[in-house]
Each structure stands twice: as C-alpha cells, then as structure tokens.
Predict the 3D structure of the following.
Amino acid sequence: MATRKYEAKKFDRDQIDETRDSLTIEEALQIIINDEPFTVTMRTPGDDAMLVRGLLHSEGILTSPEYSPEISFSQDEQSILTEARLTIPSELLGHAYTNSRSLLSVSSCGICGKTELEDRSSLGEKLGDHHQVDIQMIHGLFDTMHTMQSNFHESGGTHAAVAFTLKGHLLSVKEDIGRHNAVDKVIGDLILSSRLRQAAVLTVSGRISYEIIIKCFKAGIPFLAAVSAPSSLAVDYAKELGITLFAFCRDQRATCYSNAHRVSPLSELSKAS
C-alpha cells in the first residue's frame, strides 16, 4: 500500500469543507550489511528488495549484477522503521562500501549523507555511441509513463521512473516518494529479472540531479529523459559520461543538454535550437 487516508479541512475562499485525502506513505528502511548498519533511507514501502538491490548497484557496494544476496525484512508493528538484513562476501564488496554514507539519507536527496562526490575520472569509460534514439519516441514514452503513475494519480505525492528498450518497449515502472528511490527500484527490478542489458532509456518524473546521472551511467543506460530541469552538475557529468540527457520533456517538447548527436533525426533537433 503506497498511500494512506488522512482527514483534513479544505479552505476555498469563504468555504470550508471536510475532506479525506490520500497521501503518499514515507517510512524508514535501514539496510544492514554483514550485521553492520549501512544506511537508513526514507522511502515509500513496496518493492523494497528491488530498492535495496538497485541502491547497492548504484552506490558501487555490489557491482556485479550476477550476484543477488538474499534479503530478510523485519518490522516492529509500532515502528516506522523496517530492517533489511543481508550478507555479502567481503570479496564482493566494492570499495565504496567503506567510504559511502553516513546513516541517514532522505527521500528527496540521494546525495544527502554522502561523504564525498563521485570522482568522474574513477567511474570508468564513458558510454559508447552505439545507438540513436528518435525524438518522437521520447515524447511517446512520457505518455506511457503518465498512464502508469497510479500512485501519483491517487495522491499527487510520488515520483516515477520507467525503463524502456531502445525501441520503446516497457521494461519496468516504479513509484516512490523519492526520485532517487524510484530510480533504484527500477534498476533493482532490472537486475533481479536479468533485463538490465535491455534497458536503453530511462524516464523520470522530476528534476535531474548529478546522482541520477551516476545511477544511469552505472546501469549502462545511455538515454535519460526528465519532465523537469537538470542541475548544472548533472549536465556536466552527462557530457563526460556519455549520457544523452533530455529535460523539460512536456507537450511534445524537449531540450537535449548533452550528446545530442545520438538523437535522430538531427534536422529536427537543429530546427528546435
């Protein structure tokens, strides 16, 4: 269940009405690796195994998509905290495990709690120019995403991330109160279903931060498109890591900020610039 009903009073000019609204649930998930607390993330309950697996991949804690540890979940009925416990052999733990986060990250900001920024030079080679994407298809993907945002239509309080193949076939759609959590849930779903290599386009419902670029890059997804604005750092990283970044994707419009040579037809892009 992603929403919960709350009583409220709605004020509209001189009128006061009783209302009962659906609000998106936000609760804490503590990830415990090898009996040691790793992080606490605020999220919308649901698809927690996918969230954990995607976060481990995005953060460089467990870089092999072929290995997925068993995760046990437990929650005290009187608490908003759910524990996710897993065991990972020490030889499979990435370097980032010892230098990653403090014990709290919030749903709205995936970078909160990090001890350092990702070093662009240490992330590996940029994604290759093996594919092109049709700008008209990108527009259509947002129509698909909009129809799939069931929790948002009910509460207005969730973000969505959706993965597609290069031909626009839907692979995974997830919602969460946090933008970064939605992305991690999608990546985790793709890993657990062995479809990560099929993913070529990721659409997101909110703005684009530097860290969503990093998540996209580590998942090997070359095209990223968002409803809202990117940050300056997001564009800088997208250029260097080989991500084709679209933003302001609304009403059949889009702005491409990096690696626009992958967009076809190029003539249409030139007319818009």
Observations:
- The chain has seven helices and 14 strands.
